[in-house]
Amino acid sequence: MAKIHPKVEQITNNNSEKETYTVWMKSLIFHGNGCTIFNSKGEIAFRVDNYQQRCSTKVFLMDSEGQVLFSVTRKKLRIFPCWEGFKWIDCKGKTERLPWFRVRINPRLLCNDMSCQVSFNCDEKIGSCYKILGLEGKSILKIIDFSGQILAEAMQKQTSGVALGDDVLTLMVEADADQSLIMALITVYGLINKKL
Fold first, then answer.
1. pLDDT tens for residues 128-187?
2. Cα–Cα distance between 4 and 106 in angstroms, integer?
3. Cβ–Cβ contacts within 10 Å for residue 47, how many?
4. Is the pLDDT of residue 42 over 80?
5. How many Å apart are CA 22 and CA 16, to the nearest integer?
6. pTM for the full model?
7. Residue 131: is it exposed, middle or buried by C-beta count within 10 angstroms (0-12/13-18/19+)?
8. What single DSSP character describes residue 91?
């Protein structure tokens, strides 16, 4: 298989480097739905598959070896749905009993801006919440922590000045951020925008 190489840029911000990924909003499984995330060397770093129909109520985030890291489940609430992420403890399908994170869409009136609130239950070190900011129907987004620092940013991938399709993104993630958590939040954003 050919490797997909993100444009390798060493970005320095407050003495920390950013990891650069290429997100392809397609599954590597024939007739599957999901996305594939490549590292800066062009190797598969993460993948998401639901093995079912598009916009499934449950998807799985896996590492490059197929080990499940998170399961993300959509819960229907009154008006606005909620997505819950369960961190997998081991490869035997054991998950934490309570969701590790919850994502809720903030209500908006007559605008294309989308904002989601991410709350955490289990890990006190992460803080109380993150925000996902984006545009409705678009894959462009920013993930911001409780202090306002940008942890990750995704934009349409460009190569030699030419923008690739809407389903190919460049994702830059702070090196000290939890990479698998960021990928799980990217997964939720893809589900919200019906890209997965």
1. 689 999 877 677 899 999 888 999 999 988 888 787 877 888 999 999 999 999 999 998
2. 35
3. 22
4. yes
5. 20
6. 0.81
7. middle
8. T
Cβ contacts of 123 within 8 Å, gap of 6 or more: 100
Q: What b/e string do you get for 135-168 counting C-beta neighbours within 10 Å, with b at 16 or more?
A: eeebbebebbbeeeebbbbbeebeeeeeeeeeeb
- In this predicted model, what pLDDT tens digit does every residue of 58-115 receive, in sequence order? 888 999 998 889 989 888 766 777 899 998 876 565 666 678 899 988 876 556 678 8
**139: helix, strand or coil:** coil
- State how far the Cα of 196 lies from the Cα of 187, in Å rounded to an integer: 8
Which own/partner pairs from 62-65 qualify as long-range (CB within 8 Å, at least 24 positions apart)? 63/180
Query: Residue 180: helix, strand or coil by DSSP?
Result: helix
Q: Is 153 within 8 Å of 145 (Cβ atoms)? A: no
| Cα angle 35-132-56, degrees, rounded to a multiple of 5 | 40
Chain CA centroid to CA 72, Å = 11
Residue 188 Cα distances to 5, 10, 75, 101, angstroms = 24, 28, 12, 11
CB 37 within 8 A of CB 171: yes
Q: How many helices (H) and strands (E) in the chain? A: 1, 15
Matching residue, tokens 């190797």: 43
